[in-house]
Amino acid sequence: MKTIPQTKRTALKRLPKRGVFEQEPVYRILDEGFICHVGFIADGQPFVIPTGYARVDDSIYVHGSQASRMLRNLEKGIDVCLTVTLIDGLVLARSAFHHSMNYRSVVVFGQATLVTEREAKRAALRALSEHMIPGRWDDARQPTEAELKMTSVLRLPLAEASAKVRVGPPLDDDEDYSLNVWAGVVPLKLVAGEPIADPRLQVDVPVPRYAKEYERGK
Amino acid sequence: MKTIPQTKRTALKRLPKRGVFEQEPVYRILDEGFICHVGFIADGQPFVIPTGYARVDDSIYVHGSQASRMLRNLEKGIDVCLTVTLIDGLVLARSAFHHSMNYRSVVVFGQATLVTEREAKRAALRALSEHMIPGRWDDARQPTEAELKMTSVLRLPLAEASAKVRVGPPLDDDEDYSLNVWAGVVPLKLVAGEPIADPRLQVDVPVPRYAKEYERGK
User: How many CB atoms lie within 10 A of CB B94?
Assistant: First the structure.
């Protein structure tokens, strides 16, 4: 299995058994999530901004308005830490101390670059849309030249990335297993509800299947 | 309604109508979420780490092992950006360009301080547990003195915080409303499944109600 080389930044100081450095499981987490938290430094201050993303091959793409503070900072090529977190459950141990969560998270370090070439930009926007909701792009009215210009797209290489994963039941101290306390996991999942039609919908179009059957991590 | 003063860091440069500076809705978002992304600078690099949290009055508490890189950095009193993001839905517009998400996010800036006093620390740990799953703390085996010592608790004041919120249907360009494209919102929610008992459960305890009926944002 292809691995991603560990660096000082991605190496885990604690609980190293939770670390994942193989490319395939790292990419699988990135493909199930669709919101990342982007950390960067501006005027000496840390900022953490949530935004959508897509993975294509060994790159992460983010996009936004040209006027966005985050994108205007990132396109300077500054250091970025991009984190994706999936919460899978609450882990209820017998002891308060050993309570935990089941989760899968990925941290990516690097510098982003602006995607300027027209067709590469359009392809990245398509990937961002398809990553959020597969099947939608071809149904939607395509971006005009003006809209393309108003949108910034940034590419972050997946050269320095790692995952941290916790799965399974609680781990209690040996002497606590006989306690009269329920222990286990409350599973959590991001679930889609019934699509809500825009009240201004003028046409008689059925709800598309990709909206009705929306599900992450299929 | 009590407002939180805007600062250069919390003021929105774009879409200012999405900004929320009243204390009550900001606190409501913090109370519905339970995972934050903490951004800080170490060795000149930005780091973004997911972790649990709780709000008590005008403070946010986070905790972790004394050995954690994040906590060892934060307890130095460095600048922190703590972000909480709730995803409420995918917003499908007629045009690719106007696709969006419904979300509620809070950003907090400040410096954290270590909670050292024994009873304050215990109270914060109780709050962290009750914030994650109300009702659990009193059922669990309480922390020992050694466990308390191994845990660091940090307090971040909610003095500089703001929310950003998008709700409602897509907003398309006027000329796009007649297009033959379905538009609307796919609602998303973090939902709890059936609790999974620890296979090592030795006692015959029923699943507690707080685990069986777990729900955020009640």
Answer: 26
Q: What is the pLDDT of residues B123-164, one digit of tens each?
A: 999 999 999 999 999 999 999 999 999 999 999 999 999 999
Q: Tell me the pTM.
A: 0.95
Which residues partner with A185 through β-bridges? A91, B196
- Tokens representing A191 are 């679930």
Optimal mutation site among A10, A12, A18, A37, interface B, most CBs of chain B within 10 A: A37
Q: What ipTM was reported for this prediction? A: 0.94
- Rounded distance between C-alpha atoms, residue A165 and residue A17, angstroms: 9
Interface mutation vs chain A, best among B92, B160, B166, B181, most A CBs within 10 Å: B92
Chain A contact present for B171, CB below 8 A = no
- Which of the following CATH numbers is that of domain A16-171+190-212: 3.30.450.40, 1.10.287.1490, 2.30.110.10, 2.60.120.620? 2.30.110.10
